[in-house]
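FYI - complex with zinc ion, inputs then prediction.
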Amino acid sequence: MNKCPECSHDLVNVIYGFPTPKLVDIARAEGIALGGCNFGPDMPTHYCYGCQESFPKIEGPAIYEELPPIFSE
Ligand SMILES: [Zn+2]
């Protein structure tokens, strides 16, 4: 697993699509991050729970501020 270049925290994979209860459990354990149902070719693939950044970083205005945790609702 990769380490965050900014804080050396472990990066987790961003999982897109409808979050099943099992995926939410894994995300709560910080094993993955949930990216939601909207995704495209330029979406980040990894997420750092240490500094709450997504990687690779995306330039410009986007919806990524809505990235995880989305399971807080
Ligand atoms: Zn980090």
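The radius of gyration is 11 Å. The beta strands are 11-16, 32-36, 46-48, 53-55.
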